[in-house]
Amino acid sequence: MKQFALTKDILLRKESFGGLVINRKTFMHKEISQTEYEFLNNLGKCAGYLKPAILLAQNTTGKKVKYHKFLRDDIIEEKTTDEECCISIVNALTSPLEIALYPTLRCNMSCKFCFVKNVNKKDNVELPLSCWTDVINQAKDMGVFSISILGGEPTLYPDIISLLECANESGMNITITSNGMNVPQEVLDAIVRFDNVVPVFSLQSMSELNQTLMGGDYHRTIETIEYLMEKKKKVRVNSVYTNQTLEDFYGIIDYCILHKVDRYSVGLYMDINKSNKNIKNHTFEEARKLDEELKHYVSSRHAESDFMVSIEGCMLYTGYPEYEHDIRRLTQYEKIYYGCRAGRTKLEIYANGDVFPCICFENSIQPVSNIVNNSLEEIWKNDEYMKILRKGLPMNMECEKCGYSIICNAGCPAVRQQIHKSFECEEKDPRCALHSEVTE
Questions:
Q1: Contact partners, residue 208, CB within 8 Å, separation at least 6
Q2: Calpha distance 380→346 (Å, rounded)
Q3: CA 305 from centroid of its chain's CA atoms
Q4: What is the pLDDT of residues 115-128, one digit of tens each?
Q5: By CB neighbour count within 10 A (0-12 exposed, 13-18 middle, 19+ buried), where does 276 fall?
Q6: pLDDT tens digits, 253-307
Q7: DSSP letter string, 102-147
Q8: Exposed / middle / buried, residue 411 (Cβ in 10 Å: 0-12, 13-18, 19+)
Q9: 85-107 burial, b for 16+ CB within 10 Å, e for fewer?
């Protein structure tokens, strides 16, 4: 289904619950009814001619639309319609919000926390540029909000500049995540030119620990960041929470604020491959504590700054048991978005074209879809594993009693699949900290 952009920055998407209006710049969004979707869609098709759009909206829904409220509040008032929604996908969005591309799995570092480990089974196949540009164009037509370009080290892909150019011209939000070490000058200059491309650099510590965790001197990444900052390019930094101390994170925060880095995120490490040695796994409670510590540090040491630091990862909500029952107030879209996104709001594409609902399934399933053989829309609608995930996995009685069950579905399906070799097992994700609270 081809989605529609109302303006350069406002995306309109049809969904099973009505629709979504999304601001590309801020990711602010509003869920809208079917009536509202039809009105906005017809308004856009009329190229801004309001009167014909109103007539079309009335013909479509049989209801009179109060367009003056839309003009004042950026959305028309809530209406209902008896018209059946033609969307066949349930428990998922009609098309992905986010897609991750892995144009190459080659890398010049040896990060001990890397989640892409067993690349040899893919024979290191890399698709030609034309395949990736085709995917990007399809994603644009489907109303995809953002594309993440990952790896490996994506700057090692031979046609990375042309790939970034195509992504930039799509108008979607584009990020490229790099270790920032030995990035060719022409690639850096291209990133500067492409307004819709935001570089994200992996940095674990402003000390020798970075060498231990990544295999590279952090100064080289800093040089890359500062070059782009001098060119007035927006830059982000991320870390993976493993063996760092609070002082390691504080040092990165101080640097980011001093050099006006746009955003800093810390991802919770997940050893899905069980192959990374001497790397610490942290609980969801520890992730919550880190989040609170870092936010307190920013507010107390940099009170004048509006700098954003966030902890990211799946199932972090299980570290907040006090909100367990509030979760039932979520809207239909929020239930989809805040739960497991694999095959519901996102998909990921390997260097050889294999499609995964989430990269965490890399070593536990054999992909059945490939972008060389299938269109993106066909894959989103028909992929066997995505259908399984949307249907929902079995839960035991302990999980069914938990308030988070409406989004959690007994935890990460990739973790459960890796442990039990089956999607039918009712055992919960062993990392969940709410077990005792549910059974009391």
A1: none
A2: 9
A3: 26
A4: 886 544 445 789 99
A5: middle
A6: 999 999 999 899 999 998 876 667 789 999 999 999 999 999 999 999 999 999 9
A7: -S----S---TT-S---GGGGTT----HHHHHHHHHHHHHTT--EE
A8: buried
A9: eebebebbbbbbbbbbbbbbbeb
